[in-house]
From TrEMBL:
One Pfam match: Dioxygenase_N
EC annotation from Swiss-Prot or TrEMBL: 1.13.11.1
GO molecular function: catechol 1,2-dioxygenase activity; ferric iron binding
Keyword Oxidoreductase: yes
Family of the protein in this entry: Belongs to the intradiol ring-cleavage dioxygenase family.
Protein name per UniProt: Catechol 1,2-dioxygenase
Catalytic activity: catechol + O2 = cis,cis-muconate + 2 H(+)
Pathway annotation: Aromatic compound metabolism; beta-ketoadipate pathway; 5-oxo-4,5-dihydro-2-furylacetate from catechol: step 1/3
Residues annotated as domain Intradiol ring-cleavage dioxygenases: 136-164
Amino acid sequence: MSVKIFETQEVQDFLRTAAGLTNDGGNPRTKAIVHRIISDLFKAVEDLDITADEYWAGIAYLNQLGARSEAGLLSPGLGFDRFLDMRMDAEDAELGVDNKTPRTIEGPLYVSGAPVEHGFARLDDGSDTDGHLLIMHGTVFGADGKPVPGAQVEVWHCNTKGFYSHFDPTGEQQAFNMRRTIIADAQGRYKFQSIIPKGYGCPPDGPTQALLNQLGRHGNRPAHIHFFISADGHRKLTTQINIDGDPLVYDDFAYATREGLVPPLVERNDSASMQAHGVDAPFA
Ligand code: MBD
Ligand code: FE
């Protein structure tokens, strides 16, 4: 079938009606967005000769995506999250804003309400004994280059099985394991102890992975740690770091790796530095 009806007045009028553009009430912005999206989809059906079977398979797929709560997982997999960041980066570039730490995507696994700690936090509850000890510390700076006392550093990551607390299918993790909010000290410094996470993989039996399979793509992320950095009077930063050396650092299904977000890891074995940096002497 290759009939072309999309450009006809009948179909164009129909699209306007379906999007509510021909009636009062409702939300104009919603109408404009829905009109554009359904128009683009109608056009795709026509241009690609999408069959009824293919169309209904797509509808069934959306239901599966919802049933498994994976819309937020497919989104970065198809590059939408990265695209939104690219747009914000481009806007910043136009305004001459120089982001010292690049932004990158939030992902679907943040949970609000993590325990709040001041200056230092241990993120892991010690139950994941396969983990390699990790200490990370730094200072939050504002756009003016000055430290931001009391800045809020929200940090979250997964365990050595690639599972996040609240989303762990094994049910083995305590609530908020490997999730904390750290309030930076008077010099804007934060520090935490945890374990090095493993990479994340999409649920192998889920709809996101099923689509990625059809695209010939994997659904894995390199090991990473997420951050929200916020403070009064400052724009919130959403970012991550990647664990250097992970084979997928530059092959992330969610496209979140960026230059400047792969800090070097320093292995420390001497007990003096362990004591200086460990949980017993967080600010020594
Ligand atoms: C993750 O842990 C993640 O950070 C993203 C972006 C997508 C899926 C899982
Ligand atoms: Fe993640």
